[in-house]
Amino acid sequence: AGLLAIPILLLYMLRLRRREVTVSSTFLWQQVLLDREANSPWQKLKRNLLLFLQLFILALLALALARPFVVVAAVSAGQLALLLDASASMNATDSADGTRFDEARRRALEIVDTMGAGDTMTVIRVAGVPEVLAPYTGDRTLLREAINAAEPSHASADWSAALTLAAAGAAGADDFQMVLLGDGGLGEAANLPAIPGEVQLIPIGQSGSNVAITALATRARAGEEPQLFAQVTNYGDQDAEIVFDLRVDGELFTAERYTVPAGGELPLISEALPPEFSTIQAGLTIPTDSTVPDYLPDDNSAWAVSSGEATRRILIMSPGNVFIEQVLRSLPSVQVSQGVIERGLPTTPFDLYIFDGWLPNALPGGDMLIINPPASTPLFTVGAETTETANARVVRDDPRMTFVDFDAVNIAAFKQVTADWAEPLITADGGALLLAGEVGGRQVAILPFSLFDSDLPLQITFPVLIANLLDWYQPQNVVTVPEGLRVGESLLVRPPVAADAVRVTLPDGTARDVPRNQNAVVFADTHTPGIYTLDVLQGGDILQSQPFAVNLFDAGESRIAPQTEIALGEVTISEASEEDLGQREFWWTLALLALLVLLVEWYAYHRRLRAPTVFAPVFRKRKV
Is 90 exceeded by the pLDDT of residue 618? Predict the structure, then answer.
């Protein structure tokens, strides 16, 4: 690049030394026009500011292209795997750079800046699922872009998968090294076998002061108001003042101030929740007069959804059938009310009506279980009574008949009931013993015989049959959420057979369509704490909708005190020291200086073009 100075010098030696000026007449300039010296092709170089500046710019660019460097101390050299902790605890704000992840990003860029000429590096983001941000490369620009684009997550870090992934890329490398940028332990990864090469740790973070909501759950028992249990944990070494608040369906329900002891837990129980609620959000804040900081905001909120089990209200209209009352009261999550036939049907709506040997003049709009119907209605027709009860047959593949066995059940007689909307689930020689179906938006089941004319109430199949029918009346949730579903965990959904699509709405309102795989759907995009909504669709219509909560609830993330030593197998890894030699380049400084000199050269050139205007002399007549 320095040889480019030769053509620059030649251009200054060959160019014509002319400059255009404005004159009033060319008469007095004849001698100048006859002067041929200005037209000579070769001239002696003279002192020229522009020439000096251009040669200086060329020299700076040539030096920048040579990529000069100074030898500095470095954490590692050779083939390096850089593991960048992106777990929830890296959102802590006890760093001078902002968050811990900002500090980790800065330290990672420093390692990139000290790479040697033959060094290669890969960057792995360690979150719920490890992600290779940049493969092994010596391109510092690519590595910087990958590090700057990385963001922290709200989940726990899977260090086992990350270390395995990093070690797999080290196969055959003689100078392999691994650097961990993080603030905590490795969890289950501490039991991994020995990792090839040298492993070093750069601890991130300064303080362990943090208060977190570590549990939130609701419980509802039949006939009782719903209860809430919450737990607040102080992971710091000082007693912390907090304000704990509850929001029920988005409205502020309560807010109280508490003191959480250092390193201790504060259990909170509420028994005054509204009987009808959908979602609960718990939050904690630090009062303005508190001197104890709370550095991690991610675990200051938690969510819970109502199980909906306490809202199943059942009305029994019967002249007195202890069998039905006993079996219903033995089942969880039901509220049973006994009606009085003489007073008629109450005006209060119920989820399920059980009519035993009696029917109102007008059938209600809810689900119904009709036992021994006395007469026909617009929904069904009651025929003659028959004693042909032999050969009872059960539709085994129907979920309502799960574990239902009628082989040992004896029935004296039953009425022949027919309904075009109903499906016979149990049949005998004389007709249907159980019919069920949906009509007018209601789910209706009919047992066309009196329980006193059979030994069904004495059989184990009776509570099984009633429980199956209750599940059918109010279907179980399409998703069974494990106790304390945490961020990053997958969820197994078993939608109904009639469903053709499943859609999940995230806490930020984004909707995700989940592909269906045979009879199950796996949803794994639980990367943000909050309330999710799962919709089961058929032809674009929502068959069922259910919210579920995802929380952090991870002591390993809420315990943010940084660790300067971690255990990996039988090896204890200490804080990394700068024992290797690296190279810190400063070509960009030379390139910036060349740009500044170029601006000076541009200014000098345009200043020279502004030449003064030359005027011809004016001669006056003089008297002699």
Answer: no
Residue 26 CB-density burial (10 A; 0-12 exposed, 13-18 middle, 19+ buried): exposed
Residue 429 DSSP one-character state: T
327: Cβ contacts below 8 Å, ≥ 6 apart? 457, 462, 463, 466
Name every residue whose Cβ is closer than 8 Å to that of residue 173 and which is 6 or more positions away in sequence: 78, 79, 197
Q: Which helix (H) or strand (E) holds 428?
A: strand 423-428
For 286-346, strand residue ranges (E) read 301-305, 313-317, 335-338
H-state helical runs in 450-505: 461-473
Element (H, E) at 122: strand 120-126
The 10s digit of each residue's pLDDT in 57-72 is 888 888 878 777 665 5
Burial of 51 (0-12, 13-18, 19+ CB in 10 A): middle
Task: Identify the weakest region by mean pLDDT among 17-21, 109-113, 338-342, 544-548.
Answer: 17-21
Burial of 7 (0-12, 13-18, 19+ CB in 10 A): exposed
User: Rounded CA gap, 92 and 331, in Å?
Assistant: 47
Predicted structure pTM score: 0.61
pLDDT in tens, 206-255: 899 999 999 998 876 555 677 888 999 999 999 999 999 999 988 998 89
CA-closest candidate to residue 200, choices 86, 107, 92, 118: 107
Nearest in space to 187 (alpha carbons), one of 563, 457, 620: 563
Longest dimension (CA), the chain: 163
Q: Rounded to an integer, what distance in angstroms lies between the CA atom of residue 318 and that of residue 374?
A: 12
- Residue 440 falls in which region: left (phi positive, over 0), alpha (psi -120 to 50) or beta: left
Nearest Cα to Cα of residue 162 among 125, 204, 111:
125
- Provide the percentage of residues in the chain whose pLDDT is more than 70: 82
**In this predicted model, what pLDDT tens digit does every residue of 7-56 receive, in sequence order?**
777 776 665 556 677 777 777 766 666 655 455 555 566 667 777 777 88
Mean pLDDT of 310-328: 81
Contacts of 348 (CB under 8 A, 6+ apart): none
Which residues 6+ apart lie within 8 Å of 581 measured at CB? 71, 72, 73, 74, 77, 116
Q: At what angle do helices 49-65 and 587-609 cross, to 10 degrees?
A: 160
Helices (H) and strands (E) in the chain, counts: 10, 32
In our burial notation (b when 16+ CB lie closer than 10 A, e otherwise), range 575-591 reads: ebeeebebbebebeebe
Going 206 to 208 to 209 to 213, the CA torsion angle's sign is positive
Residue 506 token pair: 């995230």
Q: How far apart are CA 449 and CA 432, in angstroms?
A: 10
Pairing of strands 442-447, 367-371: parallel
Burial of 442 (0-12, 13-18, 19+ CB in 10 A): middle
- Both tokens of 394, joined, read 């059960």
- Cα-only R_g, the chain: 42
297-301: long-range contacts, CB 8 A cutoff, minimum separation 24: 297/91, 297/93, 298/88, 298/91, 298/154, 298/529, 298/552, 298/557, 299/88, 299/210, 299/212, 299/213, 299/214, 299/552, 299/553, 299/554, 299/557, 299/558, 300/211, 300/212, 300/213, 301/213, 301/529
> Which residues make beta-bridge pairs with 386?
414
Residue 216 tokens, joined = 């939130």
Quickly tell me which residue has 């255990």 as its tokens. 567
- Higher-confidence residue of 353 and 490: namely 353
Show the tokens assigned to 622: 């003089």
Please calculate the CA angle 320-325-331 and round it to the nearest 5 degrees.
170
